[in-house]
Amino acid sequence: MSAVMNTxxxxxxxxxxxxxxxxxxxxxxxxAGILLFNVYPIVFSLYISFTRWNxxxxxxxxxxxxxxxxxxxxxxxxxxxxxxxxxxxxxxFIGIFLALSLALLLNMKIxxxxxFRAIIFVxxxxxxxxxxxxxxxxxxxSSAGIINAGLKFFGVAPIPWLTNTHVALWAVIIEALWxxxxxxxxIFLAGLQNIPEEYYEAAELDGANAWQKFVHIxxxxxxxxxxxxxxxxxxxxxxxxxxxxxxxxxxxxNATQMIxxxxxxxxxxxxxxxxxxxxxxxxxMTILVVTFINFRLQKHWVFxxxxx
Amino acid sequence: MSNKLSRRxxxxxxxxxxGAAALAACAPNAVTSTSAPGAVGAKKLVFxxxxxxxxxxxxxxxxxxxxxxxxxxxxxxERQYADQxxxxxxxxxxxxxxxxxxxxxxxFGRLLSYAKNGTLPNITDMVKNASxxxxxxMMPGALAQYRWKEGDFDTGAPDGDYYGLPADAQAQxxxxxxxxxxxxxxxxxxxxWTWDDLREAAIKLTxxxxxxxxxxxxxxxxxxxxxxxxxxxxASLFSPDYxxxxxxxxxxxxxxxxLWNLIWKDKAAMGPIQNMANTPFMDRKVAxxxxxxxxxxxxxxxxxxxxxxxxxxxKHPKTGKRTMTLESDGFWVFKGAKEPELAFELVKYFASPPxxxxxxxxxxxxxxxxxxxxxxxxxxxxxxxVKVLExxxxxxxxxxxxxxxxxxxxxxxAPIILTAFADGSDIAQALKDAxxxxxxxxxxxxxxxxx
Amino acid sequence: MNNDFARLxxxxxxxxxxxxxxxxxxxxxxxxxxxxxxxxxxxxxxxQWPPQxxxxxxxxxxxxxxxxIIRMDRYLANSSFISLTSMVGMCISSSMAAxxxxxxxxxxxxxxxxxxxxTLMIPYAITMIPTFFxxxxxxxxxxxxPLIVPNWFGSAFTVFLLRQAYLAIPQELVDAAKLDxxxxxxxxxxxxxxxxxxxxxxxxxxxxxxxxxxLLGPIIYLNNPDLYTVQRGLSMLMGRAxxxxxxxxxxxxxxxxxxxxxxxLYIFGQRYFINGLTRSGIKG
Lengths: 308, 451, 284
What we know:
The complex is a heterotrimer of chains A (308), B (451) and C (284).
Chain A: H1 2-49, E1 51-52, E2 60-61, H2 65-72, H3 75-107, H4 113-125, H5 128-138, H6 146-153, H7 165-193, H8 197-205, H9 210-238, H10 242-247, H11 259-269, H12 273-301
Helix pairs in contact in A: 1-12, 2-12, 3-7, 3-9, 4-7, 7-9, 9-12, 11-12
Chain B: H1 2-25, E1 43-51, H2 55-69, E2 75-83, H3 84-97, E3 103-105, H4 108-116, H5 124-129, H6 140-144, E4 147-148, E5 161-162, E6 165-166, E7 172-177, H7 178-184, H8 195-205, E8 213-217, H9 220-226, H10 228-232, H11 250-264, H12 279-282, E9 286-292, H13 296-302, E10 308-311, E11 324-326, E12 330-333, H14 340-350, H15 353-361, H16 371-378, H17 385-394, E13 396-398, H18 406-423, H19 427-450
Chain C: H1 2-39, H2 43-46, H3 62-69, H4 72-103, H5 109-118, H6 124-137, H7 145-148, H8 156-167, H9 171-179, H10 184-195, H11 197-213, H12 216-221, H13 230-236, H14 247-283
């Protein structure tokens, strides 16, 4: 026995040192990516956000000037902040409600569940530009737009979906809900299917009705999934770009202008790199705050399975 | 032993990987060079422009014909084209990187800033000394937008220096749909029409059942950017010295309110539409419209022959004016061009009769700035197009949207006014708010100007 | 009597659920059906009242007209090239890193993995401009490089997915291979990769989808229309290119053409998309 151990030991020691080197080789691209595309940008963005820079002349230091400007002298910025937050909270919370409802519906043992699931997932894979072009036509203000055509059929006056400043934001929200419904539903469905059947059976034995089962078993059971969707959806929604860009270009009159679109315009159309990076940092801080709040609140409503 | 094997395998893979990455990086790049191979020692010019549709072909034709006037093989022209929406970002990046093209398409909105910060050289001497340039044959409004006097907040000084040359002159056309007029029994617009006549006709031509409106004018482009509507009313967005806003002045308020009333009180005009301008007329949804003259070709394509015609812009009832604003696409030379005189020669060629003729023959709606070339263009169908030329000759002004920081100012002020047009909300309040915003923006702009 | 009533109620509920689900599915799929329908309508039919769902007559001319206005063939080729090369790069770099995080012991491994996950929090709003600056200095703007190269450096999400899969592989297989004297690279390539093909396909498809649907990248980096991707080309249809007469059918033909490749990919790999998501979602 010990003779075998003796012959085996030296190779293991060599492979342990080789382990380290091989590991770094394997991990190198990802590490380089982190440094190049994450660490460097964070530092560089921070530096530029304290300067005024137009890419032509060297950056000039302005300290907190850009941030002050954004919060005191830039009405469009506040508008984009407002639009983005309304968009984010509406799409995320309404989206979660809709997706959970749909997942509950799908979870009933019915034939064709996978077909339904496949169909509702389609909007997720449709390119946003193609979807936005289609929806812009659906939203047409005349009765050629099929939504207004439907309203006309019921005797309702056509709604100026994309030309009224109050309605336009909702038009974008509705399209976003459509595009994301399948994604969240599928994840919720998986979470629902993960709840052990025994819990429900035990509850039935105790005389619980459907509502009580829902509130005391289903909701806590999927709360980790809900949490995951909440956090990731908020982070993505705060940075929305595609749909408002293609469908309304931030219009009408900035009604659908979002933070990242405004950031892009500042950087690449107006060459105001300092302002743009300052906005980027404000987005970053917003995301951190929102996520932190979520993580803090999770102990009140998220129940993790005890790992056995 | 095993380590050596792993390292060799890894090496193979990394070579493959970096090869593929390198391949990706070397994939087709920007330059679509269509120049003929030049002789050794040929001078090289880099020319850039935005394109759409078949405009690129038309430009290439002009450049090729210019090359034919140069000694064979002495010049090569590298051409860089980009889509209209992306073009200016590309140019900004090139200028920032210190590698601008030698010459290219100009932009009246950027001329002042570029002249001020040294991106464009002062070409006045070259212009004055050019014996084959007939400045007197060009429309004054077009030339004006390429002249700037140092210290001025706007372009157009009659004694300003030249920073580019115009290649066309575009104005507005007042178009109406004859079929709709006939169907509603309304008489066609005459030369004596005023805004009141326009309003009366619009009300008669509006038919909610058919979802048809009497009139449409893009509220952003007309009153706010090009400002022809305001100029006809003797109104303006700025005080003459550009130090204060004039939005709440009686004339300006009246002009904006007139249009707003037509849309929201009389419900006889279509409100703002998203993205595109002037398609309602093409879609036969409105009976009258004021559009950029370049829309005329589209109207010709979509509407039947004889279905539409052009007329003189209706006059303002009080001032009697019908001002068209002239804007001109043109070309300029960039500072740092290695061959500035040669670059100027190309720019000058674009502004000359042979090039103008080529653009016109290619079907580009670029009515030339030289009357000899312009007349045949304005003589095309429908007959009323010639009225545009008449209007231009009697009452035209330089385009708005050319002053310092106009894009930034516009981006803040325009949405305030446009919201009232889009929603039908209180226009008087919107104008007051816009007035305040304008004063703020002007103050900031003047600070920047002083630097 | 009670029993019958309960059974009737159950049956009614079931029918109700089917009706509801079918309605939802129809509503969800409707925009795509409308795009198909509009793409084959004559200009007059677009504005007709009442609107037709099935165009009659069927107009096939919108597609050729579309190609005359924007170079969709070019864009399809460009998008395919970019998506394919990005996909390959992402798979290689992420799987290698995932293997290291799952199976190799090295100093700072868990700390590094934590940092990697933390990068998920960094918004692209922050990384957008500096990354542009890098590529601008390298004179790679207006090429495909900025859209492909970053994917050769892996991503947190895909590394996470693959690491999950690699963790599930039994240690005995690894030990057996090591006893045979196999190198880590050998183990990785000959054991781990073949055993986790489904996850790898998920990663590949997700990256392909992500690259294909990317809009902001092409907007920032591509100026020359010859290099445009499908998404970028389509976004032009909302601008000036989309203002010509009788444009509706042409725009909708464009939208449809933009959807078709992804729909085809989806029909082929649907379970990979969905499984990949559910696996990452429930682990949270």
